[in-house]
Design goal:
By secondary structure, the chain is an alpha/beta fold. It has 13 helices and twelve strands. The radius of gyration is 21 Å and the shape is globular. Bound molecules: 2-keto-D-gluconic acid.
Length: 326
């Protein structure tokens, strides 16, 4: 029997390609060439499955050109690159990679929070540039982390991981805002108190964004929200580009209307607003919050398991539109 054909859109662990090849005829992109939409569509035309990354937009046009497609397995927990209703309408299963990256991503949220608060990269640049001549009492004096108020916008799995780290590790007072309030026992585990978005903005010393991107969350943090924050506050975005108005943030940082920021995601990434590159009080990383070797491997394995499970056995581990399975 012929093996089903699948496309792997980006370079991934060779061991994962080898595993997929046991079940499928695999067209891959181990050279990691950038494909435009037309190139992606051409390759998807005869495929039953796709192993996608967060940069691959799967929308109605793509689906219309790929009539044999039955599943897109995203190697990411976020799936704003998928038009899920359009996929459901065409009976294409969408899957993502939740859970396996939660703790790693929460660790990184904390790393960015601390690096921005304590001016780690800014001071390192100063040192590397040979500017350190002598110690001064106020040299790179930042803001405290322990015992301060940690605000979290978007209290899903990763948000809860950050809350636990803040509450249990750093004695922080945790407040959060979310579309829906958490169950009392989850609030208790995280030692987190539900507040309005306004209170969150006005009270947090460190505000971490962990909400999914959607048209509703576009510019959830813009000029008006930044204006409500404390001048000593630190803003961390590990969610998605577009949730923060990056131009407004760069202006707020430059004018010291907030003290610091740590960013892992950007509007229009991998390009970023050039103003962010010229403000010193921001720590910038290239979308690496889930990037540890074991976690990236677990994400790739889960995406592969979804493809194998669905195309070989009719079952998927982490479906986003399970109605397709019915
Ligand atoms: C991915 C992410 O590495 O899981 C997510 O939603 O943002 C990252 O972990 C990125 O989306 C690449 O697919």
């Amino acid at each position: 029997m012929n093996k089903p054909k699948i496309l792997v859109t980006r370079a991934v662990f060779p061991e994962v390609i080898a595993r997929l090849e046991q079940h499928f005829e695999v067209e891959h992109n181990q050279a990691d060439e950038p494909w435009n939409k037309e190139q992606l569509v051409r390759r998807l035309r005869d495929k039953a499955g796709a192993f996608t990354s967060g940069g691959d937009r799967i929308d109605a046009d793509v689906l219309a050109a790929a009539p044999q497609l039955r599943i897109c397995a995203n190697m990411a927990v976020g799936y704003n690159n998928f038009d899920v209703p359009a996929m459901t309408a065409r009976k294409v299963l969408a899957t993502n990679t939740p859970d396996v990256l939660t703790e790693t991503t929460a660790d990184f949220g904390f790393a960015l929070l601390m690096a921005a608060a304590r001016r780690v990269t800014e001071s390192e640049h100063y040192l590397r540039a040979g500017k350190w001549q002598r110690w001064t009492y106020d040299m790179f004096a930042g803001t405290d982390v322990h015992g301060t108020t940690l605000g979290i916008l978007g209290m899903g799995r990763i948000g809860q991981g950050i809350a636990r780290r803040g509450a249990h590790g750093f004695g922080m007072h945790v407040i959060y805002h979310n579309r829906s309030r958490l169950a009392p026992q989850v609030e208790a585990q995280c030692k987190a108190r539900y507040v309005s978005k306004q209170e969150l903005l006005e009270t947090a010393d460190h505000l971490v964004l962990v909400l999914p991107y959607s048209p509703e969350s576009h510019h959830a943090i813009g000029a008006a929200e930044l204006a409500r924050m404390k001048p000593t506050a630190n803003l961390v975005n590990i969610a998605r580009g577009g949730i923060v108005d990056d131009a407004a943030l760069a202006a707020a940082l430059r004018e010291k209307r907030i003290a610091a920021a740590g960013l892992d995601v950007y509007e229009g990434e991998p390009k970023l607003n050039p103003d962010l590159l010229t403000v010193p009080n921001v720590v910038l990383t290239p979308h690496i919050a889930s990037a540890t070797v074991p976690t990236r491997r677990a994400m790739a394995d889960l995406a592969a398991d979804n493809l194998i499970g669905f195309l070989v056995n009719g079952k998927a581990l982490t479906p986003l539109n399970p109605e397709v399975l019915a």
